[in-house]
Amino acid sequence: QVQLVESGGGLVQTGGSLRLSCAASGIIFTINTMNWYRQAPGKQREWVASISSGGVTNYADSVKGRFTISRDNAKNTLYLQMGDLKPTDTSVYYCHARNDYTRVISWGQGTQVTVSS
After folding, report:
1. pLDDT at residue 1 above 90?
2. CB atoms within 10 A of CB 57
3. Tens digits of per-residue pLDDT, 62-111?
4. Rounded to whole angstroms, how far apart are CA atoms 76 and 4?
5. Using CA atoms, how far apart are residues 14 and 58, in angstroms rounded to an integer?
6. d(CA 24, CA 85)
7. HSE (side-chain half, CA atoms, 13 Å) at 31
8. Is 34 left (phi over 0), alpha (psi -120 to 50) or beta?
9. Nearest 5°: CA angle at 63, between 21 and 80?
């Protein structure tokens, strides 16, 4: 059974920082490309950042230079270090895994990040 469990969300002031974690089980973590998505109220879910099984990272323009995605394959855990947070970053953040071979995807349940002005 695949489980992606996010944690680390919360309420933070503008300019603050948070680190999100996603603990994965039931998948071969090392052969999955991992992503963070987010969804604000009334908006479509949007991609935030990705990290390949080989460690190559990519970011949405809206977070480039402020967020850092990383992974610890020994702990089957994905991270998102978020800095210089803005009210527009307020969203539910979701962990997403895509198997590089089967293309099977999995989603976490999400963690709320709220940035106050």
Report:
1. no
2. 13
3. 999 999 999 999 999 999 999 999 999 999 999 999 999 999 999 999 99
4. 10
5. 24
6. 26
7. 9
8. beta
9. 10
Are 105 and 90 contacting, i.e. CB atoms less than 8 angstroms apart?
Answer: no
Structure tokens at 101: 């071979």
Secondary structure (3-state) at 30: helix
Question: Residue range 40-65: average pLDDT?
Answer: 97
Using CA atoms, how far apart are residues 9 and 66, in angstroms rounded to an integer? Answer: 16
4-32 mean pLDDT: 96
**The two three-digit tokens of residue 37, written as one number:** 């998505």
Residue reference for tokens 């349940």:
109
Q: Is the pLDDT of residue 42 over 90?
A: yes
What is the spatial distance between Cα 32 and Cα 54, in angstroms, rounded to a whole number? Answer: 9
